[in-house]
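Q: Structure tokens for this one, please.
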Amino acid sequence: MSLRVFKQFFSQQRLAGGAFVLAITQFLASLAGLFRDRILASTFPPGLDPLDTVSVYIAAFRPSDLLFQILVMSAFSVALVPLLAGHLARAEKDEMDRLMTSTLLLAGVLFGIVSLLLAIFFRNLAPLFVAFEGPRLELYIHFGRLACFTNFLFVTGNAFGQYLIARQVYWAYGIAPIIYTLGTIGGTIFLTPVFGVYGPMYGTVLGALFYLWVRYGSALLQGFSFRVSHLLHPEIREMGWLMLPRMVALGALQLQLLLFDRVASALPAGSITINAFARNFQAAGVGVIGIALAQSAFSPLSQAIARGDLDRFHGYLRKGSLLTLALTIPAAIALASLGNVAAWLVHLRSGEVVATFIVALGLYAMSIPLESLNHLLLRAIYATKHTTVPAIATTLSGGVAIAVAWIFATTYGVYALAAGFLAGQLLELVFLALFLRVRVRTLAPALSPTLEVVPEEL
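A: Here is the predicted structure, written as tokens:
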């Protein structure tokens, strides 16, 4: 294969090329996350650290993450890319910039107010989120307030991330999370000797600042400029209607994580960390394969719908599904077989902690193909500008996961959390697959090519 053909095949503007770039950057982000977990566990050993610092650090982000996902990502993840991609398909750059500017202003003000209120009243709300007591609870309160500021920085960073996805510019999009994670690593190594247990959190805030600047700088290089014509762009209303169901869905997902931590915080020390580390390994497989393919397919799927080209839409979906299954099934088997290696990589020391981690990891690994397909199906449905039924599916998935964890946690401990997650993903996959089939059949008569279809390889 000549160099020119190789470059053409792996161009960011093609599904395979975009997925390849996102897979590389997600893999590097996962490696950085693995190194972060190892550094945190070696600095503050789970099950041995009196403050259980790592568990507190993980749990502290859940409340502000819940608000961030509901108020911000509910709009960004389902509506912003299709709307931007529609303008891109019609070569309306100025309109893209106006929509982005309006989105940035509105999201920043809205989340800024809400996160400030959460930070002010965090002490009063903390007992609702975790079962921590004494010094551990005090540390959780301080960490939670810093997490509010971190998520405020993510508002702008993620808005520009969606802009980059719409333009199919994936390198800068994928590198930003790596830099963010390096901030936590640097804080743990270099700031902990100075600031004690606050070192990782201070490093995380610095990482968020660099995350923002990388994506903002890349958007500027793509020609973005702030254009303030109306505070509320006309399409903000459409975005608002599209995001309402997704608010419920993302709320259910974040509530699932929050309640998982609530359940685990009442279990033996280190349970939150065990569950989070096992889930991180699972998420790495999903991120490198499932999310990379889904994100790469999102803009092409959206543009295919905008052009009324259902054949191309089906082509992207079929190819993405086959690639997802071909890669995630072996990944799940490999991860389930390497529990001891995974425990060593994240520097778990206690024998009981390691044994629990290995079983939980095996249960989480089984969900890798399921969650990966769910990411692709969700974006295929979002490309048709429909969000209600996917929101119902995601909410049901979260409800099943929470119910299983809540009912069986006293008997099976952390295993109940992993089993609940697996059951929820299976239910969501069946629901989404059935609905997408119906959705496309219903949509087909109303779609006809309205724009010149640009020849493009799948």
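A few notes: Residues 118 and 148 are 8 Å apart (CA to CA). The longest helix spans residues 271-307.
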